[in-house]
Amino acid sequence: MLGQVFQTNVLQLLCSLERARDYHKLVISHASNHILIFIRSLLNKSI
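^ thats the sequence. predicted structure below, dont judge the formating
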């Protein structure tokens, strides 16, 4: 019984970690897009 509870907790933890990782990937890619756009606009102004 205890082993079963432990197993489900581990599975839930893994699932939430996966979700968190996907979320971070989204945030990071979104942020890097903004940074790229910002750098391009700076370059365009300086040229």
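The helical segments are 2-46.
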